[in-house]
Write a structure and sequence with these properties.
single chain; elongated; about 15% helix; Immunoglobulin-like; about 400 residues; mainly beta
Amino acid sequence: MVFILDLSFGEFQLLFSKEILYYILGASVMLLIIILCLLIWHICCSCTKLPVSQTAADGLSANKRGFWYGTQRRETKMEVLDWQNNHTLSPGSSYTNLSSSVDLASTADLDEEHIQGSLRFTLFYDPLLSRLVVTVLDAQDLAVRDFSHSVDPFVLVRLLWAERGDEKQSSLQCVLYEWKTRLVKRSCSPLFGDQFSCTLDEEELSRVTLRFEVRDFDKYSRHGILGEARVSLNSLNISYPLELGQDLQVPKKDIIGEVLLSLKYMPTSHRLEIGVLKIRTGFHPTKSERAIYARASVICNQCKLRHHRTTKQKGKEIIVFNEILIFLLPNHMITECTIIISVYELLSALKGSRRLIGQIHIEKSNTSENEHWMLMMQSLRQPIAMWHSILI
């Protein structure tokens, strides 16, 4: 028996059987269910949407140093046209490859609250051989880490050479030599006995300062700083072995150069452009064969973005780079990020080895670097150039 549904619309009549009616009702219910599912899915996606920095980082592999956020790098040759007046740049079109190495030193300075202990060392200069000998003997009563109640100390020795003597203290310095003692595990009063030597003219002794940094070795992070001791050779008679002992002090930074940087932020395209224009460092005649390059890193909310580096340039007193390093940075992250410029020297003696010359930290803070940051944010889409001191 077939039931007929009579639907009248004016002069038109539609006849449906009971089976057709069930088909129509079933299709309507299925369509309604699909619409409801799509609506629920859209609501869930909107509620659980992550910030740009986190979603970008989740798509990449994580390591113990943090997530990396991939960005495209483009280096552009520029010409400096009257920086004091116009700050205008003339772009070109050169490209270089990306670098993916990790540098543990390119982070903010560690604020040491407890500095204690002392360091003992000897100095000797042989005028016949023009040779300076530095011996690190031992350290006493070093501070321990709170979480492990132990310390794994070693000493980093830097020989700083000033361009001029004491008559002009503002002259730039450069690191002529850098040595490390052996590591002594779990000892607050380690015995080192490591000896280092270098060739140095006698008339240059008045320009030399030795900086001893006592550090705590950390396998998985950057090394802690337990304190430093420094001595100037200008007023010392070291024609015979001279033993010295000094209490450790809070580490201080030394100015070893200057960098002319330009900053420009474009909010529409979310681009932060860092221009490495010129680098001036302390220059020693024996360092004429060195090669120097700069590397820029951006850290946002303790998440380091992929760094970019300039090309290598032959070392001299003033090096012209005129290169632009580009980072993709959303508007909500620009106020929370820190720019770190690291300057490296390639060592010709060891192929592929490098040494950190110094760093610059630019961020929104109360430091002197804040002026450049404020000018960049006040002059969007315009490059702002300024000199910054390179510290180590």
